[in-house]
Amino acid sequence: FIGDSKMWLEANKAMKSAINLPWYRRK
């Protein structure tokens, strides 16, 4: 499941980036 692991890492990275966004913090 290397492909799935890579997708999970990409999603985790995106989530961390989203947390840093101002619109995400307001909620």
Automatic annotation (TrEMBL):
It comes from the Bacteria. InterPro entries: Phage_lambda_Kil (IPR010444). Keywords: Cell cycle, Cell division. This is Host cell division inhibitory peptide Kil. Pfam families: Lambda_Kil. GO terms for biological process: cell division.
